Amino acid sequence: MDAKDILGLQKTSFPSAQEKKPRAPKEPQRKPDGVSREVYALTGGVGMAPLMPTIEASHLKRRPAVEKEKVAWQWLPFTSSARTDNLQLYHWVRVVNNVPPTGDYDFAKYNTKVDVLKYTDEEYEKYLTEPTWSREETDQLFELCQRFDLRFIVIADRFPTARSVEDLKSRYYSVTRALLIARARSFDEVAGNPLVKETFNAAHETERKRALSALFSQTKQQERKDAEVLAEAKRIMESRAANKNVEEAGAPTSLPNAAVPADGVSPLSNNLPSSAATHPAAAANTSIPDTLRMLKVYLRTHALDQMVQAVTASAGIRMIKRVDQTLQDLGVNLKPKVPTKAVCAEHLELRNEILTLLNIQKQLQNKEAEVLANRESSFTEAPTTPKVPCS
Amino acid sequence: APIILSDSPPAAAAGAEPALTAAQKALRSKPARAPEDPDKKNKKLKDVEISFPIVYGTISFWLGKKASEYNSHKWTVYIRSATNEDLSVIVKRVVFQLHPSFTNPTRVVEQPPFELSESGWGEFEIAITLYFHSDVCEKRLDLFHQLKLYPEEDAGPQSTKKPVVVETYDEVVFPEPTEAFFLRVQNHPAATVPRLPPGPMELMSHDKKRFDTKDHSLSQWFSNFSEADELLKLAAARQQVQAHIAKLRRQLSMIEGMPQQSRVISGPGQQFGHG
What we know:
The complex is a heterodimer.
Chain A: H1 3-7, H2 37-43, E1 71-78, E2 89-96, H3 121-128, H4 135-148, H5 152-158, H6 165-183, H7 187-191, H8 194-197, H9 202-216, H10 220-242, H11 290-293, E3 298-299, H12 300-312, H13 317-329, H14 341-381
Antiparallel strand pairs in A: 1-2
Chain B: H1 22-29, H2 38-42, E1 50-62, E2 73-81, E3 91-97, E4 106-109, E5 114-120, E6 125-132, E7 141-146, E8 164-174, H3 179-185, H4 227-256, H5 260-263
Organism (chain A): Aegilops tauschii subsp. strangulata (Goatgrass)
Region (Disordered) (chain A): 1-36, 243-262
GO molecular function (chain A): transcription corepressor activity
């Protein structure tokens, strides 16, 4: 009579060695794919990254069809149309199926040349004579131009007589231009040619280069001064734009060419009328508040109180506190100990003056903050350019 | 503005009651109507201001041995002319309103000296109300004073000999006095008139009672109120402020004129490269 039988409970499930569960032979822990056997053994499988291959082998590009063709590399001679001599050069060539590549040398196409015009004697006599240039010199110039592809620095170096780059350029461009115009049947034909359209401005070029070298050799101090001047100029421009109604009697802010600061900063004269209109202080104590007018009799202290209130009515509570604080700092009683008529008058005047002072202080603070903000903003806008003069 | 010291009496009159002319006497005794000149009496003088410098306050003595719990101090509250002249020239009566714990807290004083003495233990606010003569002003004027019995903390133990004195200076201003009133008081030493009185001060006649406080029993404790000190201090302060204003104005105009050059200290050298 098992109690559990009566209660209907199940028999306990003690594994009293009843069934031998068919056990699959447990493999020794299977090594996961993607990890080499040794690594796995070393690490014990702990702390490994998620075992997912990140690069699918199938995603990689198939190597181009290598199978069909036979590719070999050969050391072969070649010719280039860019060369005028008969120098024999060699290079590695990828030969496919025993067929060497044909065609010009790949890089020959980069051998550009400038079309330097050649003039005849007749043309020279007719159009190209120039007092400062002899025929020989011009010939030499053009020969060098042809040879060096208009690289005037090199040409200038090699020019037999000493002439500046601008000079050479000037001569070349003017000669070429004259030739073009002379040879063209009508002016319109060559009007589009840049050589014709623009003339070479030697003076400008000289100046430009001089300025550039000056800029390059500026001292740090001059740099700073320039920055200031430019910032100031900008500020003036802005204020002018803002105050369109303020008529300027020619305020010559000599905006320096950024390229011509060599002699230091040119002083700015600013004719902007001073807008420092001080806040008009409250009316003097001669204006009696209406409340006092009504009274047939009053105490002097009461009158003073009323006047003080009238004066500080427009100012905020903060201003009133500041006035009181200032009075204390000056060692003055907030309410006079001996309030005679004179004392009260002086007291009131003092309060007025303190108000004026505080207002000017605030104005000054605002102005300074404004200027500071302007300067900072102008600094952040300026780009830094590399200090390399180029011609 | 007069500089008034209590112990230097003004030029001629030594604590005087003005000698009244017949007309003035008539005016005084018949405030309602004057036979001679009704217009004159009521005409208001617009640009003339009459003021009376006053001092009001309390003096309190510790009773010492005689002090009890409810009666530790004896004190006097009063209002006097700042030069110890006779205030009854304008003041008809003074009403002192005491703390309700006093019997009959409303105390009326009809003649000079306008004061009230009491004893007690507590400090409270006393209301002092001035009623003027009818030709002076029909409105009353209220002042308030805090009775102080105990000395400051660092003053040491109380003494029966040395009282606690608190006085306040002020001025009673009549902005538009009637001509009659003006004429009556313009030469009175208690009054301050903006322009000097045309004639010499009126002399006192001997047999008049003296209603000033110059020889008051407590006069030794009266304070000297000198406007000179305060004027000096105010003038110095004003000068300071004015100088400061001028300096700031210069700075301001400099900023708006030629700014940066003088003010830039150091900044990163930025290059504005063109070219």
